[in-house]
Amino acid sequence: MKYLPLVVALCLGTQLAQADTTTVGQSPWGSADEIGALNRITPESILNVVKRVKSGKTYDLSVEYYVGMPSYYFLGQPRYQIWNVHTPQGTIVDDPNGLGKEKNSLISYSGSAISMYAHTGTHIDALSHFGLKGKIYNGFATEEHLGDRGWHKAGVENYPPIIARGVLLDVARYKGVEVLPESYGISVEDLRQTAKAQGIRFESGDVVVVRTGRMQWFKEPERYMHNTPGLTRESADFLAEQGAVVIGVDNISTDVWPSKEKDNWIPVHSSMLSIKGVPIMQNVYLEELAADKVYQFAWFGAPLKLRGADGAPMRPVALPID
């Protein structure tokens, strides 16, 4: 019950936002556009960042998936599960392939299956994930484009491989703490001053990831999820205005919770996905980048091509650049 306000926020964001006059954004890339800010990634921009790679050291920015990992299970979302559908001894006993005990005993065959909510672990949100007043980014309407098998528009399968300059804003380090306080709303000034302290200048086409330090608690789900520090709508809008093509965070929600907005509440999710057309990521593992003070890097990542899905797991990696 302690998460009930968050349930309302995440599930009913569209309805809560209806009191505001804001409408969904229209894409400058045309009425058929389904990927928003990712259009800024071009062959030229990719080649430019790849040329700047200065080290073969690779940073894995994904969390590990495990049974019991943080998830909004109380919303009815399925938890991550893994089970064996084939085991060496089971294959011998059942003989599903008809090869007999001798041959099945020779080859030890295992096979597993998984089940989970698309927004589990390190993942990216499609622009269809959140909307306003029954529409998603670029004016696609639920009654026309949302079927029982997913979205016919703006599904995550439309996202290209994302290769761009990555920028880490280690707000926790700038503020001199291991983890930002509960419900701390990262301000525009926090982002400006963190970038200044790190010698970072924003560029159009950046993937910007923001560290709160909360990832250190990822294996303690209740602690990790409770009253998360995160971005305010104003600070997320600021990053979008600097030209970010993706915004990622090391918490489970992107948004600070509870929200700092008092009137006409629109969460970061709706502001980014519905209005700005900027994809967002959650549960991005930033601890190793932060420990090595790697603040600029080449970002490589691509979501699973799940047709019609409003999000998908993603395993991004980073290589330091000049």
TrEMBL record:
GO biological process: one example: L-tryptophan catabolic process to kynurenine
Record's keyword terms, sorted: Signal
UniProt protein name: Cyclase family protein
Domain of life: Bacteria
Coiled-coil segments on the chain, per record: none
InterPro entries cross-referenced by the UniProt entry: KFase/CYL, KFase_sf
GO molecular function annotation: arylformamidase activity
Signal peptide stretch: 1-19
